[in-house]
Write a structure and sequence with these properties.
Layout lengths: L2 H4 L21 E4 L5 E10 L5 H14 L1 H5 L5 E2 L4 E4 L10 E8 L5 E15 H8 L18 H16 L1 E3 L2 E4 L7 E3 L2 E14 L2 E14 L3 E4 L1
Antiparallel strand pairs: 1-11, 2-4, 2-6, 3-4, 5-6, 7-8, 8-10, 9-10, 10-11, 11-12
């Protein structure tokens, strides 16, 4: 199946002509995406089954520790599981690389981790632009690297990376501790407010949708969306 048939979109037949325009307050924001390729790497952390918060700490420590030899000025984004994206390729072998990372633990006891990084595919945001604007690729692509079929996921990870480090993530939502207000529920529980985020393809552009949310949080900042 040629790439031209995969990305051919029907054109819009026209626009509405009846009624009058009105102003709406919407919860969506246009996302400007550069026309470039990004690089997807698979991340495997041992021991596995750690919370995403711990995985993010491991990857953040890894980037800082191996800044000179591998990452340089690159600022990779990470989804907390197995996907890491960079704007430029990493200087690692096709078979991948194994790195040792240590986090400080409780009682002064360090926690060792082994992180494996392996290149998976290119992610073409240029192709995403072509799809959103209704244009198809003129010729089948001939690349020396595999190409991802999910460029939207890369956009989502980029927009979620910083909030995941700054706030308390719960599923696809983010919450922060109360500042200047107090909503105790009793039994060590309180209400936290935050927002839910989603990235969607829309007409000619990508949009970022935001909803305000609340959650019930107990003692050790375990949040349950309400």
């Amino acid at each position: 199946l040629e790439i031209t048939s995969l990305f051919a979109m029907p054109r819009r037949p026209g626009y509405g002509t009846m009624g009058k325009p009105i102003k709406l307050l919407a919860n969506c924001f246009q996302v400007e995406i550069p026309k470039m390729d990004v690089y997807l790497y698979e991340v495997d952390i041992k021991p596995d089954k750690c919370p995403r918060r711990v995985n993010r700490e491991v990857v953040d420590s890894m980037v800082q520790h191996f800044k000179v030899t591998i990452f340089g000025d690159r600022r990779p984004v990470y989804d907390g599981k197995r996907s890491l994206y960079t704007a430029n390729p990493l200087p690692v072998a096709p078979a991948g690389v194994d790195l040792d990372v240590t986090l400080p633990g409780e009682g002064g006891k360090d926690r060792p981790f082994k992180v494996s990084i392996k290149f998976v595919s290119l992610v073409s945001w240029h192709m995403l632009h072509e799809v959103l604007t209704g244009r198809s690729m003129p010729e089948p692509l001939e690349l020396d690297k595999p190409i991802s079929t999910n460029p939207v996921h890369a956009v989502d990870v980029v927009l979620r990376h910083l909030p995941s480090m700054k706030y308390t993530p719960v599923g696809r939502s983010f919450f922060s501790a109360p500042e200047g207000y107090d909503h105790p529920l009793g039994g060590g529980r309180e209400v936290w407010f935050g927002f839910h985020q989603s990235v969607r393809p829309a007409m000619w552009k990508m949009i970022r949708l935001l909803w305000r949310q609340r959650a019930t949080c107990v003692c050790l900042h375990v949040c349950v969306p309400a």
